[in-house]
Amino acid sequence: MTGTDPGTSSEEGALARRLAAIVRADPDLMRLLAAARSLALPQWRLVAGCLYQTVWNSLTGRPRGHGIRDYDLIYFDPDLSWEAEDAVLRRAAPVLAGCSGPVEIRNQARVHLWFETRFGSPYPPLPSADAALARYAAVVHAVGVRLDPDDRLDIAAPFGLADLFGLVLRPNPAIPNAATYALKAERVRALWPEIAVLPWPGADDTAVKCAGDTATVSNGLSPGPSPFSTTC
After folding, report:
1. What is the C-alpha to C-alpha distance for residues 74 and 213, in angstroms, rounded to an integer?
2. Which superkingdom does the taxonomy of this entry point to (predicted)?
3. Cis status of the peptide bond prior to 27, with omega within 30 of 0
């Protein structure tokens, strides 16, 4: 690790180094990160599924790429026009053509314009790309990585990385997103049965744990987002 936020605990720093090592060991992720860096999109990050799923595959001994359906690349441009976002998609297509995909690119400044129509719940405008992480349906989804010009990995994880390495899918009710969480939980149970899946608050469900797991998994939610960010 070459730099750490002063508020980062030694435990979180150690987990960040483990995440960085796993990402760096994955040639598909590193190729995509290098290509994304060349686009120079404002506040860009590779986020969510391709990261936590890569870690879970590493921890459970599954093949690289298992369960990864796409790669989410976010950025933040205050230009809210579809034309501006479409121009980014067109410019990115040839740059990312040689990378694993599909790559889903979304301007986080525009999410509030279409989220309610698609998912049925209001979505206040975001002030930044990283702010989107704290609204994802599960705590473990809230992780993003950027490859800096000096090749350091900049990691953002507003809830920390304990659930990621603890193999826990825990709901994040920042927005009413129970339906999305339920779908993702069902998929996780099928692809990574070792994962402890905690129920959405108020749902008629119980935590699902792997056989032989003697660790206690709390049904409580993680504390509010902390500004955990580090470079490795």
Report:
1. 35
2. Bacteria
3. no
Separation between Cα atoms, residue 72 and residue 99, nearest integer Å: 13
Q: What is the pTM of this model?
A: 0.83
* Residue 112: strand, helix, or coil: helix
Dump pLDDT digits (tens) for 203-217. Answer: 755 443 332 332 223
Candidates 155, 168, 164, 169; CA nearest to 16 is: 155
Residue 51 vs residues 23, 117, 158, 179, 207: alpha-carbon distances, Å: 8, 27, 15, 22, 23
CA dist., res. 127 & res. 106, Å (int): 15
Per-residue model confidence (pLDDT) at position 207: 42
CA dihedral of residues 13, 150, 146, 103 (deg, nearest 10) = -140
Output Rg (C-alpha) for the chain, integer angstroms.
17
Chain-centre distance for alpha carbon 125: 19
pLDDT of residue 185 exceeding 80: yes
Relative to beta strand 153-156, strand 103-107 is unpaired
Identity (one letter) of the amino acid at 100? S
For residues 87 and 187, what is the distance between their CA atoms, to the nearest angstrom? 33
Q: Are 100 and 71 in contact (CB under 8 A)?
A: yes
Segments making up each domain of the chain, as ranges:
3-166+220-226
How many CB atoms are closer than 10 A to CB 24?
Answer: 15
Nearest Cα to Cα of residue 159 among 178, 177, 141: 141
Q: What's the one-letter identity of residue 211?
A: A
